DNA sequence: ATGGCAAACCTAGTTTGA
């Protein structure tokens, strides 16, 4: 039963031991990483090669950066929008997207969607612009194949996906403009894998380092796996693993795992 | 309204995160 996971590690070099321990204990087949914060030349490949994973990364110094670890070698690996959408190549200066084929008719897309900064700031509008680019990109892909779209979306899709939805009109990650663009992407034919199995509120994938947010479970569910119908039909389970968030010096995000039969 | 924490960067204070 293949397992596919997504995890914003907030620096792969700082979190190397956590990720290795987690791979050893869960044995996931594919792990999509975000915020690796390292160039491809500096990416710590060897510990993953030693564990039998192939490493595909697209990173930059200090900020952003995505990677896919896979037990099998992957075909069709492409970084950024440009290979599918040359018109949007300016979005590729920030390393936030990598994709690969899992099968001839299944494409895995790993994204690190911009944070958005303050409401109505330049960063907020960049986030909205980036989401429109992602929509155009996925429109092409969903016409060709089944797609597993995962990563750090920096968006809580519903009010039950954050601990306090008050004032959300200006709360970046929960505004209507962001949710509407995410809904437009979802309407290309995606289903929220986590919500296929769990309806209750109070399940989060990110907690602020400050103010005891994790201890008080004051978090947001912003890390997602979106799957097209044929994948959904094979999905057995999708859960957030909060165990790594309890460790000393954790990432502020927890991994999310999808199991497929 | 602010701070609280963590990481990276030409090491000290700035930028980013959501």
Task: Explain what this protein looks like in three dimensions.
By secondary structure, the protein is α+β, with helices and mostly antiparallel strands. It is built from six helices and 14 strands. It has a single domain, classed as Endonuclease/exonuclease/phosphatase (Deoxyribonuclease I, Chain A), CATH 3.60.10.10. The strands form three sheets. It has a six-stranded mixed β-sheet. A six-stranded mixed β-sheet has the order 5-6-7-8-12-9. A two-stranded antiparallel ribbon has the order 10-11. Strand 6 and strand 7 form a beta hairpin. The longest helix has 21 residues, at 122-142. The structure holds one DNA strand of 18 nucleotides. Keywords: Hydrolase, Magnesium, Manganese, Metal-binding. The record marks 223 as: Important for catalytic activity. Residues 5-253 form the Endonuclease/exonuclease/phosphatase domain. It is an enzyme of class 3 (hydrolase).
């Amino acid at each position: 039963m293949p397992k596919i996971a997504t995890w914003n590690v907030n620096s792969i070099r700082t979190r190397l031991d956590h990720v290795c321990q987690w791979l050893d204990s869960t044995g996931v087949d594919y792990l999509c990483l975000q915020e690796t914060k390292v160039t491809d030349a500096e990416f710590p490949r060897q510990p993953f090669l030693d564990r039998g994973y192939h490493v595909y990364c697209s990173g930059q110094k200090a900020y952003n950066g995505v990677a896919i670890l896979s037990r099998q070698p992957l075909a069709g690996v492409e970084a950024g929008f440009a290979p599918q959408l040359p018109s949007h190549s300016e979005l590729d200066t920030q390393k936030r997207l990598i994709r690969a084929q899992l099968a001839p008719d299944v494409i895995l897309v790993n994204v690190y969607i911009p944070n958005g900064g303050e409401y109505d700031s330049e960063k907020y509008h960049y986030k909205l612009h980036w989401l429109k680019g992602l929509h155009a990109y996925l429109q092409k892909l969903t016409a060709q194949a089944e797609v597993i779209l995962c990563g750090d979306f920096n968006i809580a899709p519903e009010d039950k996906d954050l601990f306090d939805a008050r004032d959300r009109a200006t709360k970046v990650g929960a505004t209507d403009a962001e949710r509407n663009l995410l809904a437009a992407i979802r309407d290309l034919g995606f289903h929220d894998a986590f919500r296929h199995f769990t309806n209750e509120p109070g399940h989060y994938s990110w907690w602020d380092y400050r103010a005891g947010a994790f201890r008080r479970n004051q978090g947001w569910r912003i890390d997602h796996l979106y799957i097209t119908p044929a994948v959904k039909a094979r999905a057995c389970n999708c859960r957030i693993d909060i165990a790594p968030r309890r460790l000393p010096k954790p990432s502020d995000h927890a991994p999310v795992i999808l199991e497929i039969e």
